[in-house]
Specification:
By secondary structure, this protein is an alpha/beta fold. It is built from 13 helices and 8 strands. 47% of the residues lie in helices and 17% in strands.
Length: 299
């Protein structure tokens, strides 16, 4: 049995598209159950879920996609746990790739995530930016010891050993993945396990994302010797960092739209990193970062 678990928060249209992509998957001979866990949306996606046979809808009121995933696991029966976010679109071979790699002995799988472009010929500034700078799962797996939970699979045995996903006070993907690797589990990069993710539509959405990650990183720095001083240096480096990524942008094969797309990506990274530098600087003398970590759920 493969249990597909989908956390949901105020994205009914995206959820419908996600479930539609999953409905046509090759199950590779496995039984499959799909569980959507709503995380206190303004309206439960009851009508959306009702349109797909065999999909269960649960509710988890503790804020955060991590607690929603944990609730899905608790209600599931599969020996393989496959996590995908409500705003992701699984490619046709997604489920078969998971089944094949787990059957071959892999413990934890991290799949490829690419940006879904509305019009690849004329990407928006945030599509161009995120195409290169978001969801770099292979980099996260090989260099940082984690993978994104929006396109993740593992055995139940590994989940039970590592423990549940964290709440909104932590970046739950990094936290869970690094706990897993610390316990000796291996995360396998699976490019055929692909899902597409829409780019964020506004600067405000990206700002909320980086507020959360900045808060988590700040708490980690506070535990280090001279943590605040090192944080101040990192804040300054963030401000000038767009200069260092110019070669990366213009050599990228992930950015659509030719030179126009690459210049949009450069404009996007300059704006985002200026914002991040300012947010980081605001924490240098702060007592804690809770005001930033909670902003991701704001509308």
């Amino acid at each position: 049995m493969i249990s597909i678990i989908i956390p949901h928060f105020n994205q009914p249209d995206h959820l419908a598209r996600c479930l539609q992509a999953l409905a046509g998957q090759d199950t590779a001979g496995h039984q499959v159950e799909t569980i959507v866990v709503d995380n206190n949306s303004k309206t439960m996606p009851t009508d959306v879920v009702a349109g797909f046979e065999g999909v269960r809808l649960l509710s988890e009121t503790t804020p955060g996609p991590g607690p929603a995933r944990n609730a899905g696991v608790a209600a599931s029966t599969g020996e393989i746990l496959a996590f995908i976010d409500a705003d992701c679109i699984a490619h046709p071979g997604w489920l078969a790739a998971i089944a094949a790699r787990i059957a071959a002995g892999a413990e934890i799988l991290g799949g490829d995530v690419r940006i879904h472009h509305r019009d690849p010929a004329t990407p928006t500034i945030w599509e161009a930016y995120e195409a290169e700078f978001a969801y770099r799962m292979e980099h996260y797996i090989t260099r940082q010891g984690f993978t994104g939970t929006g396109n993740l699979a593992c055995t139940r045995r590994v989940y039970d050993d590592v423990g549940p996903f964290a709440g909104i006070g932590l970046a739950e993907d990094r936290d869970w993945g690094q706990r897993a690797t610390a316990r000796g589990h291996t995360i396998t990069w699976v490019p055929d396990m692909r899902a597409d993710h829409p780019a964020r539509e506004s600067f405000a959405e990206l700002a909320r994302k980086w507020d959360r990650h900045t808060a988590h990183d700040f708490e980690m720095f506070l535990e280090k010797p001279m943590g605040r001083a090192k944080w101040a240096g990192r804040s300054a480096a963030m401000l000038v960092s767009p200069l260092a990524v110019i070669p990366r942008i213009f050599g990228s094969d992930r950015i659509e739209g030719g030179l126009q797309g690459k210049f949009k990506a450069l404009a996007g990274v300059a704006r985002i990193r200026a914002y991040r530098a300012r947010a980081m600087a605001s924490l240098i003398l702060a007592k804690d970062s809770s005001h930033l970590s909670a902003r991701w759920r704001e509308n």
